[in-house]
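--- STAGE predict ---
source: upstream dedup step, 1 unique chain passed
mode: sequence only
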Amino acid sequence: MRLLVTGGCGFIGANFLHHLLGTHDNAFVVNLDKLTYAGNPLSVKALEDRYPERYVFAHGDIGDQDLVMGLLEGHQIEAVVNFAAESHVDRSISDPAPFVTTNVMGTQVLLECARQHKIERFVHISTDEVYGSLGPEGAFSETTPLAPNSPYSASKASADLLCRAYFKTYNFPVLVTRCSNNYGPYQFPEKLIPLMIQKAGANEPLPVYGDGQHVRDWIYVLDHCRGVELTLTKGKEGKVYNFGGASELPNIEVVKTILTALGKDESLIRYVKDRPGHDRRYAMDYSLAEKELGFVPEFDFSRGIAETIAWYEANQDWMESVQSGAYREFMSRWYKERV
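--- STAGE serialize ---
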């Protein structure tokens, strides 16, 4: 199995690489990453030492056609797993352009290069946000109409439709996965859980959008990586597979759980102005993945959050590495706009 994994220095991509190389002795992987603000080489540094014969890093953009074709041909790549994406909703509201450039145009370049190279499998990683927002009941299935409500989710829905078009038009062997909110090691601290862990640890105010009752289905990242692996090895071409963690919680309960685990007081919580187009609730029906792939999440939220907190506490060097001036500037501006 010779893979091109894009975005492998990002949160989910890095976890997938650790999982795949650690469980498949025959896997050879090229990791193509642009190393934007959320891509951290430290997240995959151990792979270079541990698997020098089976892991290659390539610095670059999925929108660079010559580079992508060179990697596919030069390393005799058989399958592609596309994690590469601009993925933060707040950033997409501030400036949608990079999201369209990477998530839509970049995905199209990757698809076309893979088609020309006659790739055997192409797994595109999407998100539950393409479905829009749910009411108090029900769950998203793979047949739920797409109704994205942010520039980020619109760009991901567009990429999903390009994948569908390549399957329908060219019979290209593409599969799409859509997953609920991930958490775990290596997640950039603009996302809810690592941000709250960081701020609570420093006794800083914890910003919570609106009334804090926005509900998300939380999945531990290793469970998601297992779902992607199953899609790659067992999924049916042209299909979409949903993955979830069976852990629906309001954001405020997630924040309170972190405070309790760290022995901090709830007085640190600060309710801030809600963001535009903020979806109220997500929930995933993953019964198709369970039926066709044998997927069942192994981590409940209490176990997953305990392991996540322990990882961040034990990896302060990684956390310090992402505290760049650009990151601090963005978070300062983000917080001031909402208080």
